[in-house]
Amino acid sequence: MELEGAQLPRVLDDPKVDVAIISTTYIQQTGLSPVHDSVFIEDKNSPYVNILVAREDNKNAENVKEFLQSYQSPEVAKAAETIFNGGAVPGW
Questions:
Q1: Average pLDDT of the chain, as a whole number
Q2: Is-contact 48 42, C-beta < 8 A?
Q3: Is the CB of residue 44 less than 8 Å from the CB of residue 90?
Q4: In terms of Cα–Cα distance, which of 28, 16, 17, 5 is closest to 81?
Q5: Which tens digits make up the pLDDT trace of 9-25?
Q6: For 42, which of 33, 51, 53, 90 is 20 to 30 Å away at the CA?
Q7: How far is CA 46 from CA 1, 7, 49, 54, 56, in A?
Q8: Which ranges of the chain does DSSP label H, i.e. alpha helix?
Q9: For the purposes of burial, counting CB atoms within 10 Å of the CB of 22, is it exposed (0-12), middle (13-18) or buried (19 or more)?
Q10: Rounded to an integer, what distance in angstroms lies between the CA atom of residue 30 and that of residue 39?
């Protein structure tokens, strides 16, 4: 069965549903833990990790470099771990 991501947590209670692939954002809303209640968690080498991109003519701009440096910092990784109860996997 194919559903929108926001609907997936609700179908976990349906006895006809054996498995659902649910993003960390939606699983958080159920009160479940991505770390403790998952049967599988992708690692940072997943082809589905979020990718940050810039236009070719802007990729070396100072503000882009500063953003990447800030975003890929240990502080952001720690905040994501806290927000997503250990379910966020930094892809950098």
A1: 86
A2: yes
A3: yes
A4: 28
A5: 888 889 998 888 888 88
A6: 53
A7: 24, 24, 6, 21, 25
A8: 8-11, 24-28, 62-71, 74-83
A9: buried
A10: 16
**Cα–Cα distance measured from residue 69 to residue 4, given in angstroms and rounded to the nearest whole number:** 33
**Rounded CA gap, 20 and 61, in Å?**
41
Token reading at 8: 């997936």
* Both structure tokens of 53: 């991109």
Q: Are 42 and 60 in contact (CB under 8 A)?
A: no
Neighbours of 56 (CB within 10 A): 7
* Chain position carrying tokens 């809303």: 29
